[in-house]
From TrEMBL:
Superkingdom of origin organism: Bacteria
Family to which the UniProt record says this protein belongs: Belongs to the ketopantoate reductase family.
Source organism (scientific name): Sutcliffiella cohnii
KW NADP (keyword) present: yes
Function: Catalyzes the NADPH-dependent reduction of ketopantoate into pantoic acid.
Any one GO molecular function term: NADP binding
Identification of the protein by name: 2-dehydropantoate 2-reductase
InterPro entries: 6-PGluconate_DH-like_C_sf, 6PGD_dom2, ApbA, Ketopantoate_reductase, KPA_reductase, KPR_N, NAD(P)-bd_dom_sf
GO cellular component: cytoplasm
Pfam families: ApbA, ApbA_C
Amino acid sequence: MEIAIIGAGATGLLYAHQLANIFRVKIYCKREEQRNLIHKEGVTLIDGEQIMNKKIKVELFSDETEINEDVLIITAKQYSLESIIRNLKKYQNKTILFLQNGMNHITYFHELQQNKIFVGVIEHGAKKENDTTVYLTGKGLTNVAPYNEHHTSLFFENWDSKLKDFPIVMEKQWYPILAKKLIVNAVINPLTALYKVENGKLLSNKNYLITMETIFNEAFSILNVGKKEEMWNHVTKICTSTSKNHSSMLRDMETGKKTEVDAILGYLLQEGKKAKKELPVIHFVYHALKGMENVRMNE
């Protein structure tokens, strides 16, 4: 079975390396420099004291790229999806798994209805060291659900049965897993980027904790997934277990890259507008981060 990984950031490199243990994998990336380096050096995964390298096929991606693999895993960030969707909508009967933060990507799925669409949520921690190397900073699960029908795929069955060290959990409903992850992302990522702190500082600083609770309450009022107290406990548990981590949004800010604030807080603001609900703190944090992002990207 041949697998295409579209996107070669931290998530793409991690999944390419791990899935190459049992599948034939090809990475599709946008930069020629990265393509050349992966072709020459392979992909290296650093897990504690272990340093593991794999030779993996790689190709440049564009609107015209022909993708022959039957299974596509989209790991590019949400703001890169528009050009990817332009390529993908010409295909039929492919299995496509989307692994993005936020929920804006579901707005594209109507263009891909001739394919089997799945969405996933990643619990692993990964940090990209360079164009060919990724650190595994935390081990977890990949939670996957079909988008609109009860599709199944031999790909997921093989993954589940043959790759026990990189586990997958299949769920029946997509909304709960995406909404649950979105609340976590909405509470932790933007505030750590705004305050420029590690995840754990949100809990140990009483003033940060107040804004954390306020954003949680606003986000929960829109997404309304599960029981509120249990959801808050889930958020604080993740914040504690990743206390020394820099969130992906903070790392993007530190390196002058575009963030996923539109996919996370922007989505919540859109849904709030539809529901005619005011989200004042989310509104403030969203525009504060957009302003910081614009300054950094224009420097």
